[in-house]
From TrEMBL:
EC identifiers of the protein: 1.14.11.-
Pfam families, sorted: 2OG-FeII_Oxy_3 (PF13640), PKHD_C (PF18331)
Residues noted as binding 2-oxoglutarate in the record, renumbered to the chain: 169
Lineage, uppermost ranks: Bacteria, Pseudomonadati, Pseudomonadota, Alphaproteobacteria, Caulobacterales
Domain Fe2OG dioxygenase residue range list: 78-178
Name of the protein this chain belongs to: PKHD-type hydroxylase
Top-level class of the enzyme under EC nomenclature: oxidoreductase
Record-level Gene Ontology MF annotations: oxidoreductase activity
Cofactor: Fe(2+); L-ascorbate
Ligand binding (Fe cation): 96, 98, 159
Cofactor note: Binds 1 Fe(2+) ion per subunit.
Length: 227
């Protein structure tokens, strides 16, 4: 399940985040890579423990936690701190799959990476190339969104970033451990939640059909959630 989440950040928030990031000191993206990633990746990355990453990361997390579509689609249990990368001309990231387990840098606790998310921080007209390409059972999906929008997809997906041929692509990327591990179950719950909202608008929240569907949703969540 791939979900586009528009307007995670407002234009003012994007402008502020970019001002902070553009003034920060970037390092070689392979400073934190394993052997396989280092062979596939050429980009720049922001030091995770730096002031810029912490400030902008906090803005992104707060915005996502207030976004109903993100909460409904991800059912987040734990959100890892956002990372930031930058691709200039000639930079890209070949096909790879994200690590299944990552450690929370603040606690050292190992966390399962159920979902990957990219929040775009450059306008698409500001660079050529740099598309995120995600492979799933239905084929290849090319993603290049407006600044402030996000794409959420299973971390088990094969994906890559195409070479940038003009301009600079700046983005945030990180991972979520969901309350519901299975992607198909998360997709079903999201469909049910959307149906509940639409039905509630049409017939009212107290209608028996709404109450019945809501009860089914929560019963499934009780069975599938890992807390």
């Amino acid at each position: 399940m791939m979900i586009q989440i528009p307007d995670v950040l407002t234009p003012d928030e994007v402008a502020h985040c970019r001002a902070v990031l553009d003034a920060a000191e970037w390092i070689d993206g392979n400073a934190t890579s394993g052997f396989q990633a280092a062979a596939a990746k050429t980009n720049q990355q922001l030091p995770q423990d730096g002031a810029a990453a912490r400030e902008v990361g906090a803005i992104i997390i707060q915005a996502l936690q207030a976004n109903p579509l993100f909460v409904s689609a991800a059912l987040p249990r734990t959100i890892l701190p956002p990372l930031f990368n930058r691709y200039g001309v000639g930079m890209g990231f070949a096909d790879h799959v994200d690590n299944a387990i990552r450690r929370d840098p603040s606690t050292g606790q190992p966390l399962r990476t159920d979902l990957s998310i990219t929040v775009f921080l450059s306008q698409p007209e500001d660079y050529d190339g740099g598309e995120l390409v995600v492979e799933d059972a239905y084929g290849s999906h090319l993603v290049k969104l407006e600044a402030g929008a996000a794409i959420l997809y299973p971390a088990s997906s094969l994906h890559h970033v195409t070479l940038v041929t003009r301009g600079v692509r700046t983005a945030s990327f990180f991972w979520i451990q969901s309350l519901v591990r299975d992607d198909a179950r998360r997709a079903l719950l999201l469909d049910m939640d959307v149906a509940i909202q639409r039905l509630s608008s049409a017939v009212g929240v107290a209608d028996p059909s709404v109450l019945s569907l809501t009860g089914t949703y929560h019963n499934l969540l009780r069975m599938w959630a890992e807390v």
